[in-house]
Design a protein that fits this description.
With 140 residues, the protein is mostly helical. The protein has 2 domains: 1-68; 70-140. The protein has helices spanning 2-15, 20-26, 31-40, 42-68, 72-82, 90-95, 97-118, 122-133. The longest helix is centred in the middle third of the chain and has 27 residues, at 42-68. The termini are far apart.
Length: 140
């Protein structure tokens, strides 16, 4: 019965994008059973790893589509996770108008530098930077 349950689990696991709890519930096994299978069945472990890697690839593809459509939040997420970008301390941005402008310019220049190396045309990136400068609260 366990090989059938394992196959069922793997099908559900893929459909549930790697969510362990939902997959275990769907095939009526405990999380401990799942972890036992991982520990004792190398083939099962490899299939779980393949599903998890495939899910990450799918999410990264979607993220890149958003980045290519100039979605600022996706660009920032990518830079924080994979780029050379480090965000300046927030208290500096809030300190004074002049310092805020300096820090905002620093952030924008940092984004332009990192993203232009990795993904976007610098002209398109300049449009994003100009758009960020128009966010309410950013003073010139």
């Amino acid at each position: 019965m366990k090989p059938v349950q394992k196959r069922q689990f793997l099908k559900v696991f893929k459909l549930k994008a790697g969510n362990i709890t939902k997959s275990c519930d769907a095939v009526n096994i405990s999380r401990q059973c799942y972890y036992n299978w991982l520990r004792n069945d190398l083939d099962f472990l490899n299939k779980v790893n393949e599903i998890q890697a495939s899910t990450i690839d799918e999410v990264e593809d979607h993220l890149m589509q958003l980045i290519r459509s100039n979605h600022p939040g996706s660009i920032m997420f990518y830079l924080k996770c994979k780029g050379d970008y480090t965000e300046p301390p927030r208290f500096l941005v809030q300190n004074a108008d002049k310092e805020a402008k300096i820090m905002i310019d620093h952030v924008i220049n940092n984004i332009i530098s990192v993203v232009s190396k990795h993904i976007l045309d610098p002209k398109r990136l300049k449009l994003i930077a100009d758009e960020i400068k128009t966010i309410p609260g950013n003073k010139e």
